Write a sequence for this structure.
């Protein structure tokens, strides 16, 4: 009898071994890593990516510079780690959820609300990310040194937005138009509104973001005069 075979449940199916919980060392490593990312998010927002130093991040995180380097070999790795986490959260926030409304207008509202709430929660990150052009669409080529690392995430987000706008067209909630151009215009307009709101402490990011969503929904209705889309090449 081979002692290496997996035990079987009644009925012949192989039993699935329970997932091993993380060790104390793994938990500690994850906590240190998260503390570094949280501190970096704040430092990048105030000093910019190029102006930030590992020493500043370590000081704010309450650890030595050496500890930071144990987790990240250089500052750019911290930036990429932050971008990766936030882009995943952004895509998941905009993705269709089982409990979302089925009609275009309500789905458009609720999915944008999740995204805007996420942006407010991580205001420090998104303030420097938008400034750096990290989430720049193909509308305007970005000069950011970090903008090309996640083209797949951008494409998935863009495709989800285009699919939603196409649904609006089928339902008669969106006037017939080029959805790619419409998506570019909408993303660019939202970026401008959110950047302005984040720069001014007296303005509420969620309130202004949702107001921009409502203006867009009104403007794209078939019986509206529509949005004067600029020529985009």
């Amino acid at each position: 009898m081979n002692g290496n075979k997996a035990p079987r449940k009644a009925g012949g199916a192989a039993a699935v071994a329970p997932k091993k919980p993380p060790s104390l060392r793994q938990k500690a490593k994850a906590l240190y890593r998260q503390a570094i990312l949280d501190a970096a998010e704040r430092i990048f927002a105030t000093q910019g990516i190029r102006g930030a130093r590992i020493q500043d991040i370590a000081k704010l995180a309450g650890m030595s510079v050496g500890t930071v380097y144990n987790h990240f070999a250089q500052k750019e790795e911290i930036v990429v780690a932050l971008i990766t986490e936030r882009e995943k959260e952004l895509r998941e926030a905009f993705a269709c959820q089982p409990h979302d409304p089925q009609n275009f207008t309500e789905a458009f509202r609720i999915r944008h609300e999740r995204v805007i709430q996420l942006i407010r929660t991580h205001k420090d990150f998104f303030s420097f990310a938008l400034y750096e052009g990290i989430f720049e669409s193909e509308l305007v080529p970005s000069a950011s040194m970090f903008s090309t690392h996640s083209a797949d995430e951008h494409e998935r987000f863009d495709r989800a937005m285009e699919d939603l706008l196409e649904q609006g067209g089928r339902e008669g909630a969106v006037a017939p138009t080029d959805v790619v151009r419409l998506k570019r215009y909408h993303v660019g307009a939202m970026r401008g509104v959110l950047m302005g709101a984040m720069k001014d402490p007296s303005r509420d990011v969620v309130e202004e973001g949702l107001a921009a969503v409502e203006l867009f929904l009104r403007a794209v209705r078939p019986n509206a005069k529509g949005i004067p889309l600029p020529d985009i090449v």
